[in-house]
Design brief:
single chain, mainly alpha, 5 helices, MamF_MmsF, membrane
């Protein structure tokens, strides 16, 4: 049970040292469905900022090509950079909170020890 808690927390805390590799490895090699579930959630929250970054790059490029105004492109780009930055901070806080919750979870905590 303790190993499961550590793997659940490691899935979330890996945001700071190996954001995509560790959750994928835990998801593939884990023996329990609960740990696989937490690895999938952590992987999604680690990939989401990357998807947002590529989407914002595409949108800024599209706005830059469709309008000949660098002011519009700059405003759109700045807005997207701020939005992606906020998303990264919120997801980092989410991962920290979920990692701490996984470490301090009781053995009968339904959120971390049963899979519906």
């Amino acid at each position: 049970m303790k190993d499961q808690k550590i793997l659940n927390a490691l899935s979330y805390f890996s945001l700071f040292f190996a954001p995509i590799i560790v959750p994928v490895a835990i998801w593939i090699f884990s023996a329990t469905e609960i740990t696989k579930h937490h690895a999938k959630v952590a992987l999604f929250t680690h990939i989401l900022p990357t998807i947002g970054g590529f989407a914002s790059l595409f949108l800024v490029s599209f706005v830059g090509v469709s309008t000949n105004s660098s002011n519009v492109t700059g405003i759109v780009g700045l807005g997207l950079i701020v939005a992606i930055g906020i998303m990264i901070v919120v997801l980092a806080i989410f991962n920290i909170i979920r990692g701490i919750q996984a470490l301090v979870a009781k053995d009968d905590d339904p959120l971390f020890n049963t899979f519906d």
